[in-house]
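Hi,

I'm pasting everything inline rather than attaching a file, because the server keeps stripping attachments. The sequence lines come first, and each chain or strand is labelled.
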Amino acid sequence: MNKDGQNVIICKNCGSNKVNFTGSLSLILLFLGIFLVCIGIWIPIFGWFVMIPVGVISMISSLPAMLYKKKNFRCTSCKHSFKISNIEYKEYKQAIK
Ligand SMILES: [Zn+2]
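And the predicted assembly:
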């Protein structure tokens, strides 16, 4: 797998092809949210007023990324974050094989 050799996804900010896939972040947020709510229910005060709200917020913030089915990428050169479509992502997966 030659990750540096792909030229399907180019950073829109600096033109570098050294990009990292960060799209699984929404999935992590969703599971973290479910986890916090499930645990928070059983912990009085701290669980109810801290863990559950934080869990709900992280679940909600994971939803837009899931709905739009966009893949999040981050440039390793300039730390610029951007989104690409599923079609572009499939081409990227082919390119780094
Ligand atoms: Zn860049």
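The chain has a mean pLDDT of 86.

If the labels don't parse on your end, tell me and I'll reformat.
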